[in-house]
Amino acid sequence: MKQLIQNQRNFFDSNTSKDIKFRIKQLRKLYSVIKDNEKYLMQAIYDDFKKSEFDTYTNELALLYCDIKDAIQKVKQWAKPKKVRTNMINFPSKSYIIAEPLGVTLVIGAWNYPYQLSLVPVVASMAAGNTIVLKPSELPAGTSTAMAKIINDNFNPEYFTCVEGGITETTALLAEKFDKIFFTGSVPVGKIVYQAAAKHLTPVTLELGGKSPAIVTENCKMDISVKRLIWAKFLNAGQTCIAPDYVFVHHQIKDEFLSLAKKEIQQSEFSFKNGNYVQIINEKNMHRLIGLLDSSKIHHGGTYQISERYFEPTLMTDISFNDTVMKEEIFGPILPVLTYDTIDTVIREIKTRPKPLACYVFTSDLTIKSRILKEISFGGGGVNDAVMHITNSNMAFGGVGESGIGAYHGEAGFKIFTHYKSILDKPAWFEPNLKYHPHTQNKLRLIQWMMGQ
Ligand code: NAD
């Protein structure tokens, strides 16, 4: 690891990766390497957890292609020094801000959307002019190998390399000094990464998880709300960081909600055979999910086959925060339904818990909508929809509080991999003696006036 990072540092110091033409060339290359290997990548992810071509394209590769194209188109603009106004005290200078790449960067990926979550941050780091070490999650072993192969076969490792491995390899990487660490994963591992980064004062972006609530009010458009909610929850078998973890439903519409939700699950035909469902990532997670079930509270579903890593889309009802399923992030296809009387209770309950990565409100009540958006702090979310906000790279994506530090996608991604260097550029032909000795009252008054005081 030491040698690899030193080689990247030497390459960075050669200034090659800072060149805008080089950045665009590498982004184009990344685009075509992925395009050329699309079938290979799709097969690898299908072998890992039966993710279909449709799902792999729409919720992994399509987002990645959009981000690469966006970066290619806009990187020149993003990287341009920005002129700003100079204050009077510095007359006659120019002031500008230079977007400077941070250096050698480390991207650590999560397993649930392995291509998107590993490579979208890479795009941002490339666009910003850094060198990159990517460490994808080891859990989907095939996708990790596929990424390592296509990257390491096509890129100079001194510029961009993929290191495969689990805890041991990540720990070894984290012992080294990087100029930026971008981590996607769980809150406990996020804390390990943060601590390791602190030893070198390395800036971090942490894309973490947690329990993201959805709220369904009595006056929402029920059929479409349930359709969108069920899709968002069971996409990727619930293994989505921004999936609605649980849902608060107004008590008056509980029965209607449950009946529509059950009908929607049945109509959606979540099955491996038709490519509309994926496996739970491993047996360990199967057992963890089974442990969250309470048979007396299952409204629909609840069956599973451990050897197949199949877990049926499940609705649980009459749930309170005392139930086991409410004690941790579910990260699987179980939707607990809680009921509420007043929106004040909902807001209070959410606010007493860690700030969620996402929050969704399904309502046509404008007061409730604005109260949720104003009173609850969360990473991002949707009104009358769930999960889809991630697809708009004009909006930064990230958490807040316990659900993460920093945000990316589009220009926001460029910014977190960039240092903004502020420069006051002064000519040498004029130097008022205001700041120099002797310090008179007149000089002080003039300085105060110039500073608007
Ligand atoms: P994880 O934290 O177990 O693993 C993430 C990465 O950290 C992997 O590359 C893994 O190899 C590495 N790792 C694991 N244990 C480590 C250790 N002890 N020391 C050093 N490195 C270690 O997370 P996961 O299971 O891959 O993903 C699930 C979690 O990630 C969920 O909490 C989910 O909400 C969150 N997530 C967040 C986002 C987001 O964008 N905010 C996206 C996807 C997943």
Task: Give me some keywords for this one.
alpha/beta, Aldehyde Dehydrogenase, Chain A, domain 1, Aldehyde Dehydrogenase, Chain A, domain 2, 6-stranded mixed β-sheet, 18% strand, binds nicotinamide-adenine-dinucleotide
Q: How would you describe this structure to a colleague?
A:
The protein is α/β, with parallel strands linked by helices and 453 residues long. The chain has a seven-stranded mixed β-sheet with strand order 10-13-14-9-8-15-16. Strands 5-4-3-6-7-18 form a six-stranded mixed β-sheet, with helices on both faces. Strands 1-2-20 form a three-stranded antiparallel β-sheet. The longest helix has 27 residues, at 53-79. The model has no long low-confidence stretch (mean pLDDT 97). It is globular, with a radius of gyration of 25 Å. It has 15 helices and 20 strands. The termini are far apart. The chain has two domains: 2-208 and 403-420, Aldehyde Dehydrogenase, Chain A, domain 1 (3-Layer(aba) Sandwich); 213-394, Aldehyde Dehydrogenase, Chain A, domain 2 (3-Layer(aba) Sandwich), CATH 3.40.309. α2 (20-36) packs antiparallel against α4 (53-79), α2 (20-36) packs antiparallel against α5 (114-128) and α4 runs parallel beside α5 (114-128). α9 (222-234) links the parallel β8 and β9 (246-250). The protein binds nicotinamide-adenine-dinucleotide. Nicotinamide-adenine-dinucleotide binds at residues 108-112, 117, 135, 137-138, 166-167, 170-171, 184-186, 189, 192, 207-209, 241, 329, 331, 357, 399, 404.
